[in-house]
Amino acid sequence: MAAAQDLEAFATWIEGLIRERGYDIDSPRGGGKSRLADAAGVHRAAITRLLQRHSMPDLETMRRLARVLRVPVREMLVRSGQLTPDELPLPPSAGGRADGGAEEPLTLERAAELLGIPAGQREMFVRVASQFLPEGGPAEPPARRRA
């Protein structure tokens, strides 16, 4: 019974996330399921089975969906009921600041600093690394990127 509840809760959560990311999964000819499947490199049937509450995605499908939907794999695994937060604890630095405040998102500049890239080479690192980010930055919905 818990598995059915986990599937329902997970599917409801991921549906909202898919819509937030700009995929039209509501209209029959919207193409959102196919676009999401293509972007994630998974079969459209896996998306359909999840959204119809027929089956939970396997680990590799979750990893691919997490990347495309820009959520941590950990969140996918916990929300799907595959693991509990205690079974998959956050690393000490990922849980926020010690004073309870939220941690700032990692920037390329901060990544260069954390990687120990010399100050004189950080600008070049940022230019090169930024070429691997999605067009318009990570928050842009997929529908706008393709236009």
What would a concise description of this structure say?
The protein has helices at residues 2-20, 32-40, 44-51, 59-69, 73-79, 108-114, 119-130, 142-146. With 147 residues, it is an all-alpha fold.
Plain-language structure description:
This protein is 53% helix and 0% strand. It is built from eight helices and no strands. Helix 6 (108-114) packs across helix 7. It is flat. The N and C termini lie far apart (44 Å). InterPro entries: Cro/C1-type_HTH, Lambda_DNA-bd_dom_sf. Pfam families: HTH_3. Residues 36-76 form the HTH cro/C1-type domain.
Count of discrete alpha- or pi-helical segments spanning 4 or more residues: 8
Text of the CATH class of the largest domain = Mainly Alpha
Q: Helicity level, as a percent range? A: 40-55%
Q: Gap between N and C termini, in Å?
A: 44 Å
Low-confidence stretches: 95-101, 136-147
GO molecular function: DNA binding
Region (Disordered): 80-102
Domain HTH cro/C1-type: 36-76
Pfam families: HTH_3
